[in-house]
Amino acid sequence: MKIVRYQANGSPSWGILEDGIVRSAEGAPFVDLRDTGQAVGPLDDVTLLAPIAPRTVMCVGRNYRSHAEEFGNKVPDEPLLFLKPPASIVGPHAEVVYPRIAGRLDPEAELVLVIGRQARNVAEADAWDYIGGYTCGNDFTARDIQKSDGQWTRGKGFDTFCPVGPWVETEFDPTSVTVTCTVDGERRQNGNTKDLIFSIPFLIGYITRFTTLEPGDIVLSGTPEGVRQVQPGNTVTVEVEGLGALSNSVVAEP
């Protein structure tokens, strides 16, 4: 099932995408979502929003060895975690704002795990049962601010710095899929989830030992090598093999 969130009469609504048609849905994903059977319209005619509205946006830093090495960073012995504010979430084709105070803006292509049920102290062997679906994400980073601050909240937490979408796929095998980032058609990142340092089940177990994840919360699993800066006017596309593509344009802060 492909779960979408779309704009309808000025308000966000949940839907299901099937055969290129968006149908309206009632309830909440992973809790009581129901297909009404009513067609909203062809996908190209529907304004998609981020397909999740998370309480928690958990991110994993340096989870590909090659990415850690390209910035001269030590490969972590344990998952390196940070949070993005929910206000950083935007959807497909939304604009990402390049802050005036930032000197360098980097996109980071990532596979996103979407939590499907309340998760606390999850055993690694049971972790797959707590994932409700998967989508594409982009961990935009004001690199100079990240480095100058020492901790990452501000450099990675600006409004619009976490595009997610275009939908959540509930039936998907994420263990060996390519993750790419292109900028204006030029491919910059090209990794594979089989190269994650810390596996998806390990991450779920590790994270839920200290915090509770609720349905709809997300975990950005890390980005591969090839990270380079972008400028206003660029269009950045993240693609995860089998999940679709997430495109966003970069604009200068007014």
TrEMBL record:
Top-level class of the enzyme under EC nomenclature: hydrolase
Organism of provenance: Pseudonocardia aurantiaca
Domain Rv2993c-like N-terminal: 1-51
UniProt keyword Acetylation present: no
EC number of the protein: 3.7.-.-
Record-given protein name: Fumarylacetoacetate hydrolase family protein
MF terms (GO), sorted A to Z: hydrolase activity
All copies of domain Fumarylacetoacetase-like C-terminal, residue ranges: 56-251
Domain of life per record: Bacteria
Alphabetic keyword roster: Hydrolase, Metal-binding
Bilayer-spanning residue ranges: none
Pfam family membership, one: FAA_hydrolase
